[in-house]
Automatic annotation (TrEMBL):
PANTHER family: CRYPTOCHROME, CRYPTOCHROME CIRCADIAN CLOCK 5 ISOFORM X1. FAD binds at residues 212, 224-228, 251, 254-261. InterPro entries: Crypto/Photolyase_FAD-like_sf, Crypto/Photolyase_N_sf, Cryptochr/Photolyase_FAD-bd, Cryptochrome/DNA_photolyase_1, DNA_photolyase_1_CS_C, DNA_photolyase_N, Rossmann-like_a/b/a_fold. Pfam families: DNA_photolyase, FAD_binding_7. The record marks 285, 338, 361 as: Electron transfer via tryptophanyl radical. The keyword Lyase applies. Binds 1 FAD per subunit. Residues 1-129 form the Photolyase/cryptochrome alpha/beta domain. Keywords: Chromophore, FAD, Flavoprotein, Lyase. This is Deoxyribodipyrimidine photo-lyase. Belongs to the DNA photolyase family.
């Protein structure tokens, strides 16, 4: 038997690792593990777990229709593989690569276990177009600035990189199941099966991609594809989305940013919780708890910031333009450590992906790769006036806006801006 381990690739179509397993092996048994190491840190109502569960149900049905099955486990991965190798003669394990620090440590542990039994552990590239060392500078070092990386990315791109893997051609190599296993319930794992947040459609709109430059910065409308959730969990193929997105260069470049941040996290895993520019860890953050609470609750007195935070808390989503504004406000106006904001987003965002989230927060805090200079501080009022001039977005999320119930600003923009610039300048001497 050969195992194919689904992780951040919850689909059967255009799946690099599944394709490789099915093409090379017979009796391929797909599995999925609800990883206790990850789930134990989540609250019982976390909608991401429900989203995954719904797609596991769909995956299981798809395999059942092929006469096979998806085996689903709720445990630590090392325990699952100890059990599988004890109960079955496993020849090989295939999976798609995951680039986050925990995932890499987990995979090293699994690979060592399998090696003791002469079982090969094959990992494939599926989550990105180009990974760690595939787009490098001429001297062999990683890019630290996006634009030259993007240019080289486009030079390296060949039709093969965007071609789909035809997994369906080899479905007859799936392990055939006489009995269908029972799927563990969410409640058995300690999670709610109540859906409280909407999940965006899994298809990207051609119209949104076509009009992307005109609509991407307007938070009051559906002007972005909202595909980040599906890319995060691999319910859509990045190759498929790149083929579709190539019709608009601006949108296409956003997908390249995603590869860029994944590459940075792989080369510099310490940046998950340390500044990419080490001297920026010398900044004396104020970390005022009352200010941080006002930011979290959307009660700072700055409408564009508050609307964004309320949207996040209610829906698990925040418009990308607003993400930049609220991150800049927390790190510059409130002088709060970017790691606190990053952790809050990690808790709340449906589409949370470490590489992009850390990259975005360090960009806002000026401590990251290709970040804005420290003296650039977004003015939340002018951002409001520019991108929501008719207050449509503001009024949707702040019903008390314009009344005495809406709070006064917790800091004054000019003073806060100058304080941030002075503090950064002194710390970076």
């Amino acid at each position: 038997m050969t195992i194919f381990w689904h992780r951040r690739d919850l689909r059967t179509n255009d799946n690099a690792g599944l394709f490789a397993a099915l093409r090379k092996e017979k009796d391929v048994q797909p599995i999925f593990i609800f990883d206790k190491n990850i789930l134990e840190d989540l609250n019982s109502g976390d909608q991401r777990v429900l989203y995954i569960y719904q797609h596991i149900q769909a995956l299981k049905k798809a395999y059942n229709e092929q006469g096979s099955d998806l085996w689903v486990f709720f445990d630590q991965p090392i325990n699952v593989f100890q059990q599988l190798t004890k109960e079955h003669k496993v020849n090989a394990v295939f999976t798609n690569r995951d680039y986050e620090p925990y995932a890499k440590l987990r995979d090293e542990e699994i690979e060592k276990l399998l090696a003791t039994q002469d079982i090969s552990f094959r990992t494939l590239k599926d989550h990105v177009i180009f990974e760690r060392n595939e787009v490098l500078k001429g001297d062999g070092t990683p890019y630290r600035v996006f634009t030259p990386y993007m240019n080289q990315w486009k030079k390296e791109l060949a039709p093969f990189h965007l071609k789909s893997y035809p997994t369906e051609k080899y479905f007859n190599n799936l392990n055939q199941s006489k009995e269908i296993s029972e799927l563990i319930s969410l409640k058995e794992m300690g999670f709610s099966d109540e859906q409280t947040q909407d999940f965006p459609p899994i298809e990207a709109s051609d119209k949104i991609i076509k009009d992307y430059e005109k609509t991407r910065d307007i938070p009051s409308i559906r002007g972005t594809t909202r595909m980040s959730l599906h890319l995060r969990f691999g319910t859509v193929s990045i190759r498929e989305l790149c083929r579709q997105g190539s019709k608009n260069e601006k949108y296409y470049n956003e997908l390249i940013w995603r590869d860029f941040y994944q590459m940075i996290l792989e080369h510099f895993p310490e940046t998950a919780d340390k500044s990419f520019k080490p001297k920026y860890d010398n900044i004396p953050w104020e970390n005022n708890e009352a200010h941080f609470e006002a930011w979290r609750e959307g009660k700072t007195g700055y409408p564009i910031v508050d609307a964004g935070m309320r949207e996040l808390n209610a829906t698990g989503f925040m418009h990308n333009r607003v993400r930049m504004v609220v991150a800049s406000f927390l790190t510059k106006h409130l002088m709060t450590d970017w790691r606190l904001g990053e952790a809050y987003f990690a808790e709340k965002l449906l589409d949370y992906e470490m590489a992009s989230n850390v990259g975005g927060w360090q960009w806002a805090a000026s401590s990251g790769v290709d970040a804005q200079p420290y003296f650039r501080v977004f003015n939340p009022t002018s951002q409001h006036e520019k991108f929501d001039p008719e207050d449509k977005y503001i009024k949707k999320w702040i019903p008390e806006y314009g009344t005495s119930k809406y709070p006064e600003p917790i800091v004054e923009h000019k003073k806060a801006r100058q304080n941030a610039i002075d503090t950064y300048k002194e710390a970076l001497k």
